[in-house]
Sequence to fold (266 residues):
Amino acid sequence: MQVVAVVLLRNEDVFAERVLRNIAGFCDRIHVADHMSNDRTWEIVSSVARELGNVDAVRISHAARSHDLVVPYIGTDTWVFSPDGDELFDSARLMRFRSELEAGRYQAYFRIIPAMLHCVSLDEQGSSADGYLTPPARGSTRLWNFAALESWDGVTRQRVHDGHPVFLDGWDWQAAYDMGGEVGFDLSPFRCLHTCFLRRSSQDPETGASARPNIGETNSYRRDAVGRLAGAVRRMRSGSRRTLWKDDRYRRGPVATIDAGPFLDP
Fold:
């Protein structure tokens, strides 16, 4: 069994280094795909890749190209991990989770959803964060059992979004384990501080930063220039970077406060 991460980044220089360092011990290999960042993301990723022996990085012209990085693992005994550039995982808990994966505890599942806090404020000095827990807020699948797959073809928006996954006998998309719903944030070995409502790039405003639109709100499925133009027109028509999709799904339930220390110090 192996764990391979495919991390897709675009202008994420605030958290990119922490994202990678927090998962480095959990993963056998980390593939980073930088989608045309124009802040310091590529510089940071390149530095981390030179330092850590299990990280490699490429630059891509369209987010859909990141799916090419997962294709070689289809049908193999591989858990594909797909954290985003605004997701800080608890590195100590990940090591416990790795032992559970190796013991086969989750082998019956195709996908695993981490317990998450969708963060609206982060006090790094005080090591605390406020946000919305899953559930009732919605979580996102971040670990995929590629031993369940025969193929994954078709048009994709990125890594493991859309397309046409074909399952081996006995498997289907519904074989999912939701850590937040099953064991809760405090006890979960697979948990994440999701900084989606915070400033993620040095190019973002110091104050008043908002969550970026979901890729389905802004991007085109097509990888060519026409597809990129369609995405740009959609963004212009919206007149705002604000995302109703994330507000609707992630701002649910009461605001909770958690100890952010385990997510800030790998």
Notes: Confidence is low (pLDDT under 50) at residues 234-240. Residues 225-238 form the longest helix (14 residues). Helices lie at 16-23, 41-51, 91-102, 179-182, 215-218, 225-238, 244-250, 261-264. The first strand starts at residue 2 and ends at 9.
